[in-house]
Design a protein that fits this description.
Layout (H helix, E strand, L loop, with lengths): L6 E3 L8 E3 L4 E2 L1 E4 L19 E4 L10 E6 L10 E10 L6 E6 L4 E6 L6 E11 L2 E6 L8 E10 L19
Parallel strand pairs: 3-6
Antiparallel strand pairs: 1-12, 2-6, 4-5, 5-12, 6-11, 7-10, 7-12, 8-9, 8-11
């Protein structure tokens, strides 16, 4: 059965529609701390949301890509995915770049570098796409484990475009 949305994905059990490693390297599902010191979360977002996906960067090299994708199945009959809320953890001396991409590959959100040893909630990123994915490009060393948790997906179509200038007039015409 398709869940009603907004849909919250805590990754504690099977999360229909989610795949990892389809295009690049897989994010790893975990609770508790990551294996490396001085990077990654030591626990999930909260005791009620202990699971997350993270990019294990040990043994990798700069630019190694990871992906975690959602096929939008819960929103298929509702005009697609409208907005996405999520929490990220980007702690480590060699953090890379984390992106949220629309189904056609456009960047909806992006952040680079060490953001401190904490989970940060991001609200209402406009996606307006049938699907979306998280993509992480690692930094130069093992101290660059990025994590994603507690993803909330809202459904709906994009709002109508704002009206343009009347035909034959440019916005600067007097």
């Amino acid at each position: 059965p398709t869940p009603s949305c907004p849909c919250t994905f805590g990754f504690g059990t099977s999360s229909p529609g989610w795949t990892t490693g389809d295009k690049y390297n897989a994010f790893t599902r975990r609770s508790g701390s990551t294996p490396s010191t001085a990077t990654g979360p030591s626990a999930g977002v909260s005791s009620s949301s202990p699971f997350y996906y993270f990019a294990e960067t040990s043994g990798g090299s700069a630019g190694k890509l990871f992906d975690l994708a959602y096929d939008g199945s819960a929103c298929a009959a509702k005009g697609g995915v409208s907005t996405v809320d999520f929490s990220y953890h980007m702690y480590g001396a060699t953090m890379g770049t984390l992106k949220l991409l629309t189904g056609d590959g456009a960047v909806a959100w992006s952040l680079k570098g060490d953001q401190g040893n904490k989970w940060v909630a991001v609200k209402k990123v406009r996606v307006y796409s049938a699907s979306f994915s998280f993509e992480y490009a690692m930094g130069s060393s093992f101290t660059g484990d990025a994590a994603i948790a507690r993803v909330i997906v809202a459904c709906g179509q994009a709002p109508p475009a704002s009206p343009s200038s009347p035909p034959g007039q440019s916005p600067t015409a007097r």
